[in-house]
Amino acid sequence: MTRITCHRGDLTREAVDAIVNAANSSLLGGGGVDGAIHAAAGPRLLAACRELRATTLPDGLPVGDAVATPGFDLPARWVIHTVGPNAHAGQTDPALLASCFTRSLDGAVELGARSVAFPAVSAGVYGWDADEVARIAVAAVRGHPMPGIDEVRFVLFSDRLRDAFRRALVS
C-alpha cells in the first residue's frame, strides 16, 4: 500500500527517487518551483530540457502531460516535469489538473521510482485555489494504480498549502 503524506518543505531537498516539477510548456525554466528545481539541478537539466524540445517535444509539453529527465545535482534521481493548467488563461478543467498528477505517476512507475514528491501544481501563479488543488491532487493519487511506488509526498512551500493538503488527506 502506498503511503501518502504532506509536509512543508523544499522540494529540491527531498531524498526521493523522483520529484515533480510544476513546469511551463517550454520546459526551459521559469519562476517558483520550476526556477528552484532548475537552479538546484544545475545547467545539465536545462540542456536535457533543450534536447527534449529539439527532438520529441518541439512544440513544448502539453498541459496535463508529463515527461522525465535525470535529476542531475538534485538528491532525486529524476525530475518529472508536468504542465499545470493556468486558471488565469481560462484553463479551469479539473481533469487537466488531475492529469498532471496521474501522468506524473505513470512516468514514475515507468522509471521504477519507489518514492515521488509533488508540489501543489497550479496553486501558485497559475491561480488555482489551494483547497481545490489539494482535493484534486489527493483524489488523483489515491485513484491511481501505483505498482512499485511505496510513498507519495506532497511537499508544500507554505503553511497555507500544507494545511489544504492535510485537510484533503483526512477527507
Automatic annotation (TrEMBL):
Xref: NCBIfam families: PRK00431.1-6
Coiled coil: none
Species of provenance: Propioniciclava coleopterorum
Protein name, UniProt field: O-acetyl-ADP-ribose deacetylase
Highest taxon in the source lineage: Bacteria
Domain Macro: 1-171
PROSITE patterns: MACRO
UniProt xrefs under Pfam families: Macro (PF01661)
SMART domains tied to this protein: A1pp
